[in-house]
Amino acid sequence: MKDAAGKENDEATLTTAFATARLTYLGDGDVRYKFELVDDTLVSVGTHKDDSDKSGRGAEYSLLEWYGGKLVTACDRTGNVDEVPVENDGKRVRVLLGDGSKNKGLKTEWSTIKDGKLLIGSTGKERTDDDGNVVHKGEMWIKALDEAFAVTDIDWSTQYGALRAAAQCPHGAGYMIHESGRWSDVHKKWLFFPRKLSRQPYDEVIDEAKCCNLMLACDDDFDASKVIAKPALTFLPLRGCSDFLYVPGTNDSHIFVIRTEETIDGEVGTFCSVIDIAGKVLMPEMLFGKQRKFEGCCLIADFMKTKPAY
User: Fold this and answer.
1) Which of 121, 159, 292, 305 has the most CB atoms in a 10 Å sphere around its CB?
2) What is the extent of the structural domain holding 54?
3) Is 126 annotated as a binding residue?
4) Is 225 assigned a ligand-binding role in the annotation?
5) What is the total count of domains within the chain?
């Protein structure tokens, strides 16, 4: 799903982009996979009045997950959790910032399935003011949803803190921003590709060029001393990971990665590649979304069987 919103007509309809593609295994060799874009379509998903934040922004979908027989996404402006295709005729499911006590949507950024639950996470960073003072820690909570889409709020400050400690960017001396994270039932480990990493206090201007190429793996206990950190893909300060998935049939050893790039002059693009868990490139990174910022990916074979006309 693309993280973008626009007015389609005078009724201020929100739109987003939904792309389908095919990843083919080519066998052993220098290049083991081939990526082919099948379709890239703008989809109407709601109205500014009903489905946006106070600034009129909405449908900025940042994750994609097949869960409970539904293709699920979530908006990082409103916290709305939607089923694809978005029809807005069912019960509204919304995840809220922090412990859920305030009526403010979570900035949803990543998702995974663990122990039968859909987990939705945010940036993992404290929100600070211009002087570096902490305003709130609401984005350091995750949400666990069951198949009835009942929501449980979980404080993940310790888990995010362990990842930051391993990368030597604790609060006050730096920060880390997440847009992707997945649990592997095969390896019994968490894997993260942080989008941004800084060993300086947050500054909105220089933050634009703080993307990183770091891969982090850890056990479920998040022991900072046991976090495995290694580089993955080429370091480009304006290009960071937006999502990834384990390639089926590889025992979670091959990883399809999407990275998005935003330049200072407003150009955006989405790139994809395949690597293994050691960081070896199995398919070189390629541009597949020019002026598109796709922020979520998942295997949709089951979805296409149930909704082939979408």
Assistant:
1) 121
2) 13-306
3) no
4) no
5) 1
